[in-house]
Design brief:
about 500 residues, alpha/beta, 15-stranded mixed beta sheet, two-stranded antiparallel ribbon, 21 helices, 17 strands, about 15% strand
Length: about 500
């Protein structure tokens, strides 16, 4: 260890180990510790242990059973995951000082039956998680038991975020949580629209009770569009800063909603099917949402209109002039000609704050047109970029076309699995790249001096791809950009 390192103040070590939280200034002779090396600090000095343990164990994930995407990967994986989960839950239950570090708990349950034993073990751990802030439960089966919900209410007083599948919102005990900041629907199988609509037809009395109990504190909400129309949720709209409207069979009333959510900073619309009400609402409220900094329009089907109203032009008008827009993800399903108002009519240089951008190329676009889109629409100062719809010809010139995006820390490319992208060229051209995604592969870019290395162990597992979280990306912007986008073959 260099001499200066032994005399650094604890506050400096905090910045080195944590990475400064993205806000700390760079310090002379100080480099941030790579995230993969933070666990090493647990076995060094007491000072570094105290700093690292709060970061390494801030987020814990528990797996019950085997997810179908694991099939054929490793016959012993399910047994190892169950043993690992048991050991973690036991350690939490027996060590309150360790449990105090855990702020976020994610449970991925895929056991057969009710998983009663696993859920009882989870309850034992929850008794010690008094500092827990966020709880996530994937999958609708096995069901989240009422006993687990009761444990969250009674033993986790600081819980302010709950992310569960929609059937679990029907637990009446949930309404006893009365200081939630975030309520989100959690998806496992995104393509089961028929299940979604079946559940969506159920009168969501318990869900409304949960939202009503958190009117004063709720800021982030992910919900079916049809649920949000209900007058029972009117009181919460004016305070929301983040809203996701998902998989609704209809979006009637969206125009009024946009008028009433005046504090909204982030908006996601994912209809799951064509809906003219979306375009009508955006057209009527082209200048609404003055605080909007993030916009995701995911899988929006553009229907050809006989009249003068062009849905893409409506979307372009909604985006136009939003100088504070920092994150934009456009997944518009249509032909290239229909997108011309977006490319030609929108002054992209006006989006001076744009830092995170995602786009899906139409299937009928050729390489020359794609290059024009890349050069005209992609701001050169981006820190994160997601680009889908590339083919062999476009891939051949894509890296050169983005070579001047030297601020990119994250890049995701999808070309339908043609595998024409040259990894060496990408990571050596984009010198600040930290994370690279290509079709179903995501890998951390590891650099040592002038040499770039990305060995097989650095690739994310299929399971990590599927159940990815902010902590996996290391950046909230990157997670937001890829949210709801399929990475694994089992996502759709």
């Amino acid at each position: 260890m260099p001499l200066y390192a032994a005399t650094l103040a604890p506050e400096i070590w905090q910045i080195i180990v944590t990475g400064g939280g993205g806000r700390a200034p760079r310090l002379p002779c100080v480099e941030f510790l790579p995230r993969r090396d933070r666990r090493t600090c647990l076995s060094t000095s007491k000072l570094l242990y105290v700093i690292a343990v709060k970061i390494v164990f801030y987020y814990i994930d528990i797996h019950f059973g085997s997810w179908r995407g694991d099939t054929g990967v490793d016959e012993g994986l399910e047994e190892r995951e169950l043993s690992r989960s048991w050991e973690i839950l036991q350690h939490i239950a027996r060590n309150p000082s360790f449990a105090a570090n855990i702020k976020k708990l994610v449970v991925c349950p895929f056991s057969e039956g009710t998983a009663i034993f696993e859920q009882r073990c989870l309850i034992m751990a929850l008794r010690e998680l008094s500092n827990l802030r966020s709880f996530t439960w994937y999958n609708t089966t096995p069901e989240l038991s009422s006993d687990v919900v009761t444990a969250l209410v009674e033993f986790c007083p600081r819980l302010d975020a709950i992310h569960v599948p929609i059937p679990h919102f029907l637990h009446p005990e949930l309404s006893r949580l009365n200081h939630l900041r975030s309520i989100q629907i959690q998806f496992h199988e995104l393509s089961k629209y028929e299940d979604v609509y079946t559940v969506g037809n159920v009168k969501p009395t318990e869900f409304h009770a949960l939202v009503s109990a958190n009117t004063a504190t709720l800021r982030e909400l992910s919900i079916w569009g049809s649920f949000f129309r209900d007058t029972a949720l009117a009181a919460v709209r004016q305070n929301l800063t983040h809203l996701e409207l998902l998989l609704s069979s209809e979006f009637r009333g969206l125009d009024r909603l946009l008028q009433e959510t005046t504090c909204l900073e982030s908006l996601t619309i994912w209809p799951g099917m064509p809906d003219d009400h979306i375009y009508e609402a955006l057209e009527l409220n082209a200048t609404a949402l003055p605080r909007l900094t993030s916009l995701k329009l995911f899988e929006i089907s553009i229907i050809e209109h006989d009249g003068n109203d062009n849905p893409v032009e409506v979307i372009a008008n909604f985006i136009r002039g939003r100088h504070n827009l920092r994150r934009l993800d456009l997944g518009l399903i249509c032909k290239f000609d229909a997108l011309l108002p977006l490319f030609q009519g929108l002054q992209w240089q006006e989006l001076e704050s744009l830092d995170v951008f995602g786009f899906v190329l139409p299937p009928d676009i050729d390489a020359n047109a794609a290059l024009l889109v890349i050069e005209h629409c992609i701001p050169r100062g981006l820190s994160a970029l997601s680009f889908s719809g590339l083919d062999e010809d476009i891939c051949a010139v894509f890296v050169d076309a983005i070579s001047d995006l030297q601020n990119l820390g994250f890049l995701y490319i999808h070309d339908g699995g043609s595998r024409h992208l040259n990894y060496d060229s990408v990571v050596n051209t984009l010198q600040r790249l930290e994370l690279l995604g290509y079709n179903t592969t995501v890998m951390d870019v590891e650099r040592q001096g002038d040499r770039t290395a990305y060995p097989t162990p650095s690739k994310w597992s299929t399971r990590k791809n599927k159940f990815r979280a902010v902590e996996d990306f290391g950046c909230g912007d990157w997670e937001w950009l890829m949210r709801y986008h399929p990475i694994t073959r089992n996502d759709k």
